[in-house]
Amino acid sequence: MEDSVKKPKSIVDVGCGSGADSIYLARKYGAQCQGINLSPVQIQRAQALAAAQGLADKVSFLVADALQQPFPDEQFDLVWCMESAQHMPDKKKLVSELARVAAPGATIIIVTWCHRDLSSSEDLKPEEKKLLDKIRDTLHLQPWCSAADYVKLLQSLSLQDIKVADWSRYVTPFWPAVIRSLFSWKRIIPLLRRGWQNIKGLFGLRLLCEGYEKDALKNVIITCRKPQ
Q1: Exposure string (b/e) for 86-104, b if CB count within 10 Å is 16 or more?
Q2: What's the number of domains the chain is made of?
Q3: What segment(s) does the record annotate as region SAM motif III (predicted)?
């Protein structure tokens, strides 16, 4: 997409959080970017951040469901779903919506947490399943699937140029650094004051690290293109 001919003019950021990716993409490509998220609090923060950076005319945010997006068919040149798919209860519906709002020739990018790929005769080991269930429950995630499962869903929609890359080894050092940063006095006291759910989340991050260390958990990027 570095080729100016291929630069997207319209982007949707599905599960946009507090808007950092939307703002980055709008600035990088000079495109109009629409972010959606279920959290009104995060959407409010995203709007404030875009305004503070002088991009309110380029970036807009909306409280909306990724599984039922409020957009017409074939609207966006780039469909971006960064680390939100693991929160979606229906992966088939999610992928279907990503494909629906993508314009002909558009690129779809999904970055997400998955369990490791399995052979046709293989299942997750009991200890892997137990660990992944703990991660899911502690971090309020939805049922796991593999990168291969996503590829099958994309293929079923006739999407093209499907590519998968495992980013786990690049991501693995990040989470221990996050945990260490939270144990400073400056941050641990506010964390404790916010109650059990935040403390539980901290344990969840440690379980996440264990998942990567044991190769049960993967951080993958999946890219594909909608046919012209």
Answers
A1: bbbeebbebbebbbbbbbe
A2: 1
A3: 101-110
pTM for the structure as a whole: 0.89
For residue 217, list its beta bridge partners: 115
Burial of 112-125, coded b for 16+ CB within 10 Å and e otherwise, reads: bbbbbeeeeeeebe
CA-based nearest residue to 14, from 96, 82, 108, 87: 82
Query: Which has the closest alpha carbon to 83: 40, 113, 108?
Result: 113
Task: Flag the least confident range among 4-13, 54-63, 126-135, 163-172.
Answer: 4-13
- Residue 138's alpha-carbon distances to 16, 95, 159, 170, 197, in angstroms, are 21, 25, 34, 23, 9
Extract the tokens encoding 137: 């429950």
* Domain housing 95: 4-120+140-171+216-225
71, part of any domain:
yes
CATH of the domain at 82: 3.40.50.150
Residue 94 lies in a domain: yes
Instruction: Report the range of poorest mean pLDDT among 42-46, 58-62, 151-155, 169-173.
Output: 169-173
